[in-house]
Specification:
heterodimer, A: elongated, B: 115 residues, Alpha-Beta Plaits, 4-stranded antiparallel sheet, 2 helices, 36% strand
C-alpha cells in the first residue's frame, strides 16, 4: 500500500458516512439538487487535495459544505461575467444566505429531514419518490437503482430528472412540514420506505444481490428517520421491517421455493433482530399514538415470539387485526384476520369469513385469497373444492415462486 | 409564485356547486391577497377551438380534447410554494365533485439564447 492510498482512506470513509449529509445541506444553501451534487463532488476533490497534507479538519462536514458552496458560487460568478444575462445572476441572488446559521448540528439534521420530505413529497408519484430517495438520500447510483428496481437505467434517469424538474419548477419547498401537516406527510415517507423494503424483500435468493440489498437500504433509511424524528409510527415501521427481515433466510429454500410461515424453521429466524424489533414495537404501542405500521409490527412480533405455529397467541393476533381494521379497513386486512380466526377457532370459522371476501368483497381476482380458501378446504379435507381454489389461485398469479408453491400443494392433495 | 388552478368537472356535476359558495371562497382568497384572477366557464358545447395552419385560420366546434371531466373554470393564485397552492386548491369548492389541476406559472424566457 502506498502512502497516498493510506491518506485517502479517511476521505473515502467520510464520503461514505457523511456524503449525503453534506449534500442535504448544500441543497438548502444552493437551492438546487444539481448544483448541490456538483458542489459535493467539487468539495471532495478539494478535500483529496488538501487533507493528505493538512490533515482532516475538526469538523469535516462543515469544511466540505463551505468548500463546495464557495467553489460553486465562485464558478457561477465567473459564468455570470462571461454571459451577463445567463441564469447565473438570478441563481446567485436567489441563494439563501448561510451566514446566520443557528446551532450547526441541529441544522445538518434538519437538512437531512428536509431532503427526505422533499424526495417523498406527495405531489410526486410513488415510483418517482422511490427513485429520488434512493438516489439523493441513500446516494445509490442510477445504474444500481435501475437494476434493483428492474427497469432500464434510461427510464430511471428520466424519472429522476423529471422529479427534480418538478421540485424546481413547481416550487416544492425544501422544508420539514409543520406539525399540522406532519402526519399526512410522514405517511408518504413511511410508505416510500416500506415500498423500497418490499421491492427488495420480494426478490428471491437467486436474483441480483442489488435487489435484496434494497431491504437493508430501507432499514437504514428507517433508522436514519427515527434518529431524526422520534415518532411512534417511525418506530413501528422500523420494527415491522426488522421483524420481516428476521425471517429472510427461513422464508425460502436454497432453490428459491417459498416456505409459508407455519412451515418455516424457526431456528433460522434472526433472534437479535427480533429482539430489537419487539423492543421497538413495545415503545411504539406504549406511546398511545401508534398507527397501522405499529400494529402490523405487533402482529409480526407475536409470531416472532412464538416457538411454533401452535404456540402462537392467535387470539391476540385477531385482536390486533381488529385494531388494524380501524386504521386500514381493507379487504386484505380482513383476509389476514380470517386466517388468524381459522387458527384460533378452526378452518370452518375461517372459511365463513373468506367466502364473502371472494364473492363481492373485492378479492375475487386476488390469488392469495383463493390460496387461503384452498388451504382452509384442504384442512377441512374437502380436496375437490380445494383443488378448484388452488387452480384459480394459480391462474391469477404470474410470480414463479408462488406458482411452484401452488403446484406443490396441488400435488399434496393428489390433484 | 403564481399557480393556475384548473377546475375540472364531469357533465353530471357541472352545476353541483352553488355559485354563492364559489363566490364566497374567491372572496376569502381576495381578502388574503391570494387571488389574481378566477372565473367560471360556460359548458364545453359553447367552445370553439382555433388553429392556424399554412397561414389559414381553422375553426373547430367543441373543446380541444373530449374527456370525461372538462374544464369548468380557473383560479390564478399567488402562493408561497406548492404546499400553499395545494392547500388553496384543496379548498376550492368544486374539488369535492371534480378535480383541480395545479400548474405553476412560468416566466417567459426573453434571453438571447431563446431567440
Amino acid at each position: 500500500m502506498t502512502k497516498r492510498e493510506l491518506d485517502t482512506a479517511p476521505i473515502q470513509e467520510i464520503y461514505r458516512r457523511d456524503g449525503r449529509r453534506v449534500f442535504a445541506t448544500l441543497v438548502r444553501l444552493l437551492g438546487s439538487f444539481d448544483l448541490a451534487e456538483e458542489a459535493l463532488q467539487t468539495a471532495f476533490v478539494a478535500a483529496a487535495e488538501r487533507w493528505p497534507q493538512a490533515g482532516v479538519p475538526g469538523n469535516p462536514v462543515a469544511w466540505l459544505v463551505s468548500a463546495g458552496r464557495f467553489r460553486v458560487i465562485d464558478q457561477l460568478r465567473r459564468q455570470r461575467r462571461m454571459t451577463p444575462w445567463s441564469d447565473a445572476a438570478e441563481q446567485i441572488d436567489a441563494m439563501p444566505d448561510g451566514a446566520s446559521a443557528p446551532d450547526e448540528r441541529e441544522t445538518v439534521e434538519d437538512d437531512q429531514l428536509r431532503l427526505i420530505f422533499t424526495c417523498c413529497h406527495p405531489s410526486l408519484s410513488e415510483e418517482a419518490c422511490i427513485a429520488l430517495t434512493l438516489r439523493e438520500v441513500c446516494g445509490l447510483s442510477t445504474e444500481a437503482i435501475a437494476r434493483a428496481c428492474l427497469i432500464t437505467p434510461t427510464t430511471l434517469a428520466q424519472r429522476i430528472v423529471r422529479a427534480k424538474a418538478k421540485i424546481r419548477d413547481a416550487g416544492i419547498p425544501y422544508e420539514v412540514p409543520g406539525t399540522d401537516e406532519l402526519p399526512r406527510r410522514l405517511a408518504r415517507v413511511l410508505r416510500v420506505i416500506y415500498l423500497v423494503f418490499n421491492e427488495g424483500y420480494s426478490a428471491s435468493q437467486g436474483e441480483d444481490l442489488l435487489r435484496t440489498a434494497l431491504s437493508s437500504e430501507a432499514i437504514r433509511l428507517a433508522r436514519l428517520l427515527l434518529e431524526l424524528l422520534s415518532e411512534p409510527e417511525v418506530q413501528g415501521l422500523l420494527a415491522l421491517l426488522l421483524l420481516q427481515d428476521s425471517r429472510r433466510t427461513a422464508r425460502a429454500t436454497a432453490e428459491g421455493e417459498l416456505v409459508p410461515l407455519d412451515e418455516q424453521d424457526r431456528a433460522l429466524w434472526d433472534r437479535a433482530t427480533i429482539a430489537e424489533g419487539c423492543a421497538l414495537v413495545r415503545q411504539a404501542l406504549r406511546s398511545g399514538r401508534f398507527g397501522a405500521y405499529s400494529l402490523q409490527a405487533a402482529i409480526a412480533a407475536v409470531h416472532a415470539e412464538a416457538s411454533s405455529p401452535e404456540a402462537t397467541d392467535w387470539a391476540e393476533i385477531v385482536g390486533l387485526y381488529d385494531a388494524l381494521l380501524r386504521f386500514e379497513p381493507s379487504p386484505i386486512v380482513l383476509l389476514n384476520r380470517a386466517v388468524a380466526v381459522a387458527m384460533r377457532d378452526g378452518p370452518e370459522a375461517g372459511l365463513m369469513l373468506v367466502e364473502p371476501l371472494l364473492e363481492g368483497g373485492g378479492l375475487g381476482r386476488y390469488h392469495l385469497a383463493h390460496a387461503v380458501k384452498a388451504d382452509l378446504l384442504r384442512r377441512l379435507e374437502r380436496p375437490v373444492e380445494a383443488r378448484v381454489a388452488y387452480l384459480t389461485a394459480f391462474e391469477l398469479t404470474q410470480q414463479e415462486p408462488e406458482r411452484r408453491f401452488l403446484v406443490r400443494r396441488l400435488r399434496e392433495i393428489g390433484g | 409564485m403564481k399557480y393556475l388552478c384548473l377546475v375540472y368537472l364531469d357533465q353530471e356535476n357541472w352545476s353541483a356547486c352553488p355559485d354563492p359558495v364559489c363566490a364566497a371562497y374567491a372572496q376569502g382568497l381576495i381578502d388574503n391577497d391570494r387571488l389574481i384572477a378566477g372565473e367560471p366557464l360556460h359548458p364545453v358545447h359553447t367552445a370553439t377551438t382555433i388553429r392556424v395552419r399554412n397561414g389559414q385560420v381553422q375553426l373547430y366546434d367543441g373543446p380541444f380534447a373530449e374527456t370525461k371531466e372538462l374544464l369548468a373554470g380557473f383560479y390564478l393564485v399567488d402562493a408561497k410554494d406548492l404546499n400553499e397552492a395545494i392547500q388553496i386548491a384543496g379548498g376550492i369548492p368544486p374539488a369535492k365533485y371534480g378535480s383541480i389541476e395545479v400548474r405553476p406559472v412560468r416566466q417567459l424566457d426573453l434571453s438571447d439564447a431563446a431567440g
